[in-house]
Amino acid sequence: MPIIGIDLGTTNSLATVWKDGKCELIPNALGKFLTPSVVSIDDKGEILVGETAKERLISYPEYTATGFKRFMGKDTKIMIGKHTFTPIELSSFILRRLKEDAEIFLGEKVTEAVISVPAYFDDNGRNATKIAGELAGFKVERIINEPSAAALAYHKDYDMSFLVIDFGGGTLDVSVVDAFSNVIEIVAVSGDNHLGGDDFNNAIANYFCKQNNIKPDTLSKETIASLVRQAERCKVTLSKTEPVMMISEIDGKQCSALLTNQKLVEICAPLLRRMEKPIARALRDCKSTLGEVDEIVMVGGSCNMPLIRQYIEHILGKKPLFDIDSDKTVAIGTGIAAAIKERKSDIKDTLLTDICPFTLGVNVLNYEDPTNDLFSPIIERNTTLPTSRMRTYYTVHDNQSQMFIAIYQGESMYCKDNLKLGEIEIDIPQAPKGKECADIRFTYDINGILQVEITCRSTGKRDELIILNPKLSLSEKELKNKLSELEKFKLLPRDDEENKLILATASRLYEQSTGLIREQIHEHIDYFNLLLHEGNDAKIRRYRNDINEFFSQIDDELNSNDDEILQEFRDNYDDTEFYEDFPDDGDEEE
User: Fold this and answer.
1) How many CA atoms within 13 Å lie on the side-chain side of 368?
2) CA pair distance 490, 45, nearest whole angstrom
3) Which end of the chain is more exposed for a tag (fewer CB within 10 A), N or C?
């Protein structure tokens, strides 16, 4: 059975497989490669995934969820209608759909996958991703960092070093990579798990509200979802032409805002500034300079924005590479990683070395403030994996009979500011403080599984712990129960995908339109529902083409910016300026 690669993204997800000596993208039921990472639930209780679910973001926002990847590994609950889901469960629905698509494409069962995660995902996020895969019916033995996957996709036969900037819908990852012969070595990683294209959409929507004296907290969920969707469209349109006009009717009032790339720079300046810190940190950690990096590689859907490309070129002084579709780069690399794991003969000799993205260590007594333990690193961030490191720790009290060790992940000096992964203790002989000691060994494997071993040096007594968050790790029985629980939520049958998408699109356009167009949409859908009731597949197929063409025309009209005033502005607009002076912002986020 083949192992597939999956890029489980914040905005879109896609699957790939190594076939006939190359990595192939796997199409979904609509014949597209990108499946929006959106989940919705309809009035029949069926789970809708992808394009159909995305169409319901405006018309049924309370029954639709997106952006949940940002909460992977956190104790977050997401309401969809009357049902409550975790980010793990919602991600499992996306993975289930990708699994179905892969099995149809390959004509055989698929039981194993390599799944990519942001390099800066902590252990909780990685474990959550594995569990989502298991709930979808996959065996997930290998998790790969997204920039590492991008490095695999870009690897050539010659030696080179490159800086990978992976900027998606919800996360920013930065890696420094050295490639030589058939070895790809990740040297350093950094990132921001809460910075992505979605933040730019929200910034545009907030600017629109500000320009029209609208308080966002007074708007309905439907209106907010509509504004964010329009903001995303404006962002995409600005990639091709400018200016664009964002127009929306709110509470019976026609509201608008004019957007140019220069204005976008001003609106999103704090977000752009936040990109600089992870880049600088990755270069500092590997003790490299930009002059020592051969190429800059940009991947992820948000890198399609000219603003982002120009900004990266502006701050780094080097033009980034765009040899591969940025939306698909990580998926291609993940497919290659799956082929390596599968020991495919034409790629098995390729070796990818990854690194530990966070420092791992234990608590030690803070003599100045005994209630606030200090963090003692054992494995530093950017250490090549797999690795094993040991440090010796001594007793701090007279007649101490136990050593209690808490394991943390992070970069802060104080334990309370880092992520606690687990705890372990061992009995020791009573003696004056500083006379007894224990050796603590951390062993961290390629999949981010941490084994902690503690040995009392004087007695030889030993104990060990495999670090898995108890809230995230599932026993076989728990996994079985969770699978049984999710079984009641049936995915929309793959064959119904196109019909359901038309109905979802009609609902969105109906809400966005008025007058005659609204009546026409109503008539089209009435007739389409009649055909569905009759079950004549040939007629449904023909009418589906007609109605899709009609909906495309309405979408074009709704998104048209070519009124006379705007055209006059555009004719006089000088787009030759380069935005050299990016504004500072006093409220810049860290």
Assistant:
1) 2
2) 8
3) C
Q: Which sign, positive or negative, has the C-alpha torsion 544, 545, 548, 553?
A: negative
Cβ(6)–Cβ(13) below 8 Å: yes
DSSP 492: P
Paired tokens of 82: 């009357």
Q: How far apart are CA 419 and CA 373, in angstroms?
A: 13
pLDDT digits (tens, 9 = 90+) for 175-195: 888 888 778 888 888 888 889
- Residue 313, φ and ψ in degrees, nearest 5: -65, -35
Selection from 356, 395, 396, 362 nearest residue 377 by Cα: 362
Parallel, antiparallel or unpaired: strands 12-19 and 3-8: antiparallel
Give the DSSP per-residue string, 143-193: EEEHHHHHHHHH--SS-EEEEEEEE-SS-EEEEEEEEETTEEEEEEEEEET
Instruction: Give pLDDT tens digits for 456-468.
Output: 999 999 998 877 5
- Residues assigned a catalytic role: 7, 69, 146, 166
Buried b / exposed e over 84-115, threshold 16 CB at 10 Å, is ebbbbbbbbbbbbbbbbbbbebbeeebebbbb
pTM of the full structure: 0.78
* Cα–Cα distance for residue pair 209/420, rounded to 1 Å: 40
Whole-angstrom distance, CA of residue 223 vs CA of residue 214: 12
The mean pLDDT of the chain is: 85
- Tokens linked to 514: 């008025």
Please give the Cα distance from 36 to 104 (Å, whole number).
Answer: 19
- Output the CA–CA distances (angstroms, integers) from residue 164 to 114, 185, 282, 334, in the order listed: 20, 12, 10, 15
